[in-house]
Specification:
The protein is α+β, with helices and mostly antiparallel strands. The chain is 28% helix and 27% strand. Strands 7-1-2-9-12-11-10-8 form an 8-stranded mixed beta sheet. Pfam families: Ku.
Length: 266
């Protein structure tokens, strides 16, 4: 895996040299823009709006547009020289309980790979977080952009999750929900809680879930290659508009499914 960042994790006076690699990869089926009539790829050209000519990559830099339309031009060298302490160091500012960070802040996941000379200190930090049930919080700058970073044990190593800044999360505008939503009856509340418990598991196994959109797209691609028609599933219909009846039927189905599963494993 390609290393995206090299630096050190520091907590207290302990420094651990590490490399950062991506922990995830997209498995989505990708498409290209093509001409409908002949399937040829469409080429996107970079054209300067002032000179009306094509611009090669070596002449392209980043620009920040002001509200009045003026542009502040930034070169790659200027961006690379931003004075960011987190450019080469992840300083753990504090350790908090593992469930203290709201998942809405989670952005991207990476693996922190220790350098050979730091295996002992790396393992020590991983085990200390595991034993205390804590995760580390600090900052990291990746490609000139500083992010909050959460360090947590993951398998035999340590994972880094970049976090959104608080002002990047929108405030929920749900006033209508608390003002206008009807209060559930006691029987409905009790059945909803029973349904949640009936559908509950002690652990989460993501391998039990499938990406139906990817499977359907692949089936469509295969069908087009062989000039076959694919079956279109019937849309799901609403069983009942009555909330209490819907809860009752759902609860019965969940209980039957659980009973059938227990019989199958007995």
């Amino acid at each position: 895996m390609r290393t995206l960042w090299n630096g050190v994790i520091s907590f207290g006076l302990v420094a651990i040299p590490v490399g950062l690699v991506a922990a995830t990869e997209s498995r989505s089926i990708s498409f290209r823009q093509v001409h409908r009539s002949d399937g040829a790829r469409v080429r996107h050209e970079r054209v300067c709006t002032a000179e009306d000519r094509r611009v090669p990559w070596e002449e392209i830099v980043k620009g920040y547009e002001l509200p009045d339309g003026r542009m502040v031009v930034m070169t790659e060298d200027e961006l690379a020289e931003l004075p960011l302490p987190s450019a080469h160091s992840i300083e753990v500012a504090e350790f908090v309980p593992a469930g203290a960070v709201d998942p809405i802040l989670f952005d991207r996941s990476y693996f922190l790979q220790p350098h050979q000379v730091a295996l002992g200190a790396y393992s020590l930090l991983r085990d200390a977080m595991t034993d205390t049930g804590r995760v580390g919080l600090g900052r990291v700058a990746i490609r000139t952009r500083e992010r909050l970073a959460l360090l947590r044990p993951y398998g035999p190593g340590i994972s880094l999750v970049t976090l959104l800044w608080p002002d990047e999360v929108r405030e929920p505008d749900f006033g209508w929900l608390t003002d206008q939503a009807p209060q559930p009856r006691e029987q409905e509340q009790r059945m909803a809680e029973q349904l949640v418990l009936s559908l509950s598991s002690t652990t989460f196994d993501p391998t039990g879930y499938r990406d139906h959109s990817r499977e359907a797209l692949q089936a469509l691609i295969d069908a087009k290659l062989t000039h076959r028609q694919i079956a279109v599933p019937e849309p799901r219909t609403q069983e009942t508009a009555d909330l209490e009846e819907a809860l009752r039927v759902s609860l019965d189905q969940a209980r039957q499914a659980r009973t059938a599963g227990q019989r199958g494993t007995g």
